[in-house]
Design goal:
- It is a single chain.
- This protein has about 270 residues and is an alpha/beta fold.
- Helix content is about 55%, strand content about 10%.
- Strands 2, 3, 4, 5, 6 and 7 form a 6-stranded mixed β-sheet that branches. The protein has a two-stranded antiparallel sheet with strand order 1-8.
- The N and C termini lie close together (about 10 Å).
- The structure holds zinc ion.
- The site of zinc ion (ZN) has 7 residues, from α5 and α6.
């Protein structure tokens, strides 16, 4: 297995960790959080309204956060090849505890797409969550590509744009998502296509093994976009429900999803 097998120990999770997808939870509960918690100072940037706690590490390091979130915004719209003209409200909690206590949700990041809002936390340049493209992708996709039909494609595109889901000692800037997925494939953990496009089954994978959930989704979507471009993916994204994904994949890509899935598994098996 080599050195890469060690990344499962001591990794830092960058995506959102919730019982439902970050988007769905957010849609249900966000308005209370945003209206009741007023303890913020606000920095307006070109594309974001960044909220940080007064006198926090985030307030001290605001220039780093501004440049990172603005870069993330550009990375997202460039990858998706869309235009997004509204401002995004981004809440930077002072710690994961602050976020969990005051937002009411576990995990490092959150997106409330319908409210054009997202959240993460920042303690130091070494310890932060969701100060990157992932949550921005969720809300930009919602407003420009359309309504989610598949959890796997929704989390997959967020991970694909970011390029990774976790960091490790070997990969301090993030474990490239195809490397992470190849490792899972070598352990024979990759789930079949039927489980991936069944939102209930795929959601239970999330609860059991979020490393598998995000890396498999992210690698599959990245490989699909690398193979056939973002425009076809954006069409598929809105037509990938459990009833529809097979026929819409065949129509959009001119091949069966089973054949493409095998190509992707073959690609992974040659990586390590
Ligand atoms: Zn997410």
């Amino acid at each position: 297995m080599g050195k890469r097998s060690q990344w499962r120990l001591g990794t830092i999770i960058l995506g959102c960790l919730t019982a439902l997808s970050c988007k769905e939870v957010g849609r249900i509960f966000a308005p209370d959080i945003i209206s009741t918690d007023q303890n913020w100072v606000i920095r307006e940037t070109e594309h974001l309204s960044i909220h940080v706690r007064p006198d926090s590490a985030a307030a001290r390091d605001i220039e780093w956060i501004v440049s990172r979130l603005e870069e993330s915004f550009h990375k997202a719209v460039n990858y998706l090849q869309v235009q997004y003209n509204n401002k995004i409200t981004f809440f930077v909690y002072s710690s994961v505890q602050d976020k969990e206590k005051n937002s009411g949700f576990n995990g490092y990041g959150m997106a409330w797409p319908s409210l054009e809002s997202a959240a993460g936390f920042y303690e130091s340049p070494q310890n932060y969550g969701a100060i990157g493209p992932h949550e921005l992708v969720h809300l930009i996709v919602y407003w420009t590509v359309g309504i989610m039909t598949s959890l796997a494609l929704d989390e997959g595109i967020a991970v694909a744009v970011t390029g990774h889901y976790m960091r490790s000692n070997e990969y301090p800037d993030g474990i490239p998502v195809h490397i992470a997925a190849a490792q899972l494939n070598s352990m024979q953990k990759i789930k079949p296509v039927s489980a991936v496009f069944d939102n209930r089954a795929w959601g239970s994978v999330h609860d059991q093994d979020h490393v598998l959930y995000y890396n498999q989704s992210g690698s599959f979507v990245a490989y699909l976009v690398e193979s056939y471009g973002i425009q076809k993916f954006n069409q598929f994204y809105t037509r990938a429900s459990a009833n529809e994904y097979r026929s819409s994949f065949q129509q959009i890509y001119g091949m069966s999803i089973d054949d493409f899935y095998q190509q992707w598994i073959q690609f992974l098996s040659l990586l390590l």
